Give the backbone structure.
Amino acid sequence: MAKFLQRLWKDEHGQDIAEYAVMLAVILVIVVGTIRLIGSNANNVFSSVGSAIQ
């Protein structure tokens, strides 16, 4: 049992998948935040341009 636990502790096979999952989650948070920020600013710009045209 001790050898199994040592082997399990040293095994890094699934570590890459976890790192990629964390990296993907961080990128998704940044992208969603940027889209929300740009979306609200774009809405304000289009409203201003629409008001200026009329």
Summary: The radius of gyration is 24 Å. The chain has a mean pLDDT of 82. Residues 27 and 34 are 11 Å apart (CA to CA).
